[in-house]
Amino acid sequence: MKYLSIFFVAIGFIALTAWMPGTADVVEAEMANTLTLAEEDAGWETLFDGQTTNGWRNFKEEGVGPAWKVQDGTLMLDKSDKSVKGGDLVTETEYENFDFRLEWKISDCGNSGIMFNVTEEGYEKPYHTGPEMQVLDNKCHPDAKIITHRAGDLYDMIKCKKETVKPAGEWNSVRIRIKNGKTSFWQNGVKVVKFEMFTPEWNAMIAGSKFKNWKSFGQSRKGRLCLQDHSDTVWFRNIKIKQL
């Protein structure tokens, strides 16, 4: 009888969310940016609490640019007014071996990125040291014409083995896992890129990329995670990490 009651409650909730426009979105927002008990027991940490920018700051600065907003449980870069400063965001903590996951959605024809192993001291930009997982509207951004510049690619180095990105305005789940230089990218549940850093093959890839003139690019084994300001509106949520 108890299970039958639970069944009817669930059916009633589904019917309610279907009848009340926007209810499902509210519930989804309230459930975002939290860890399950199993995740907590496994050592996962949330990097965005859904309410503040705690744990993040602009690259080589102390604060967070006002274009970065916490809105409806998302960390949003609002570039509706491009004169308002955003700036690349980096974690206050540095990480080495980790499993990093988040969800993103991009504005129409938008561009952004997720960088890792970013080093600040002595460098002007995050991309001078940190490799990037591309965030892009593959449908209409000009970078989509370049095969290593599409969503989920190791930017300018390795293309995805399969296109799994969703259209602009829809959420994409991604994952970056690094263990002793062995790195994999997932996008919407599919492993799309695999490579090993700090090897002769890695250095040869760098030498054939746009990063070849930055001698420290991709050489750090430890660094900050970075959410890129590429002058387009983008949203992030469910940002979490497990150190390996």
Task: Walk me through what this model shows.
With 244 residues, the chain is of the alpha+beta class. The chain has two domains: 1-31, no CATH class; 37-243, Exo-inulinase, domain 1 (Jelly Rolls, Sandwich). The chain has four helices and 13 strands. It has helices spanning 2-19, 23-31, 37-42, 200-207, and strands spanning 44-46, 56-58, 68-71, 74-77, 89-91, 98-106, 111-118, 132-136, 172-179, 182-187, 190-196, 224-227, 234-243. Strands 1, 3, 4, 6, 9, 10, 11 and 13 form an eight-stranded antiparallel beta sheet that branches. A hairpin with a 2-residue loop joins strand 10 and strand 11. The radius of gyration is 19 Å and the shape is globular. The model is unreliable at 2-19 (pLDDT under 50).
What tags apply to this protein structure?
Jelly Rolls; disordered N terminus; alpha+beta; 17% helix; 5-stranded antiparallel β-sheet; 30% strand; globular; 2 domains; 244 residues; 8-stranded antiparallel β-sheet
Could you say what the CATH topology of the largest domain is called? Jelly Rolls
Order of helices and strands: HHHEEEEEEEEEEEHEE
Shape by Cα distribution = globular
Any idea what the radius of gyration is?
19 Å
User: How many strands, which pairing sense, and closed or not: the largest β-sheet?
Assistant: 8 strands, antiparallel
Average pLDDT taken over every residue: 91
At the first level of CATH, the class of the largest domain is Mainly Beta
Question: What's the CATH superfamily of the largest domain, by name?
Answer: Exo-inulinase, domain 1
**Could you give the count of β-strands?**
13
Q: Helical segment tally?
A: 4
Tally of separate domains: 2
Portion of residues in beta strands equals: 25-35%
- Which structural category do the helix and sheet elements fall into? alpha+beta
**Helix coverage percent:** 10-25%
Q: Note poorly predicted spans.
A: 2-19
